[in-house]
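Morning!

This is the sequence you dropped in the shared folder:
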Amino acid sequence: MYMCQMKKGLRVRLPEKIHPLHRVRHVVGMTQKDFAFQIGISPQMLQAIELGKRRLKPEVAEVVHTLTGVLPNSLKKGPPRSSLGGVFDAQRFQMWQMVRQGENEEAPKRVLEKRVEALKWIGQAMQNSKRGLIWEEEFRRFLLKTIQRYRISKELEKLKREHLAKGGKWPDEAFLPSKEASKRATIASLILKIKN
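The structure's back. Tokens below.
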């Protein structure tokens, strides 16, 4: 059984059981495309979740909590509930944005050095466990994926120019695949050709 909702003068059929995430998105006032981007899933996946065709993963529910303040457990059934108490609504979302704004501005500055230090320790652990190549390739892909996902390539180029202008060294090799393997492969193929 479907209920009808008016959207731009057209009747839209909605499932009888609407997922709590659908209600959250409407309170937030975002399109499926924008909301999906914010929580790190595809618009198709979001639509499938809202229609009850796919399950909401716990890690996505945690991201929804960070973005909106909605308690992850309340996204399973019933009306979504806010971390600030009560049923999630526009007023609680505005209050949550105020809470989150301060954290968005302060957290990166507060933990930047700690994150850099953590990356060093992770790199050391990967090297010690003989996973250097896997770690290097995965980390490079992570960097590239982050740059693409958040569309920060122009900002990164600007920072690079500013950093180089101040006489700094830019870690280009961290973003590029290793050239050593391809050099060795070329040498090895030449040796095989000579021997044959």
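Headline: Confidence is low (pLDDT under 50) at residues 1-7.

More detail when I'm at my desk.
O.
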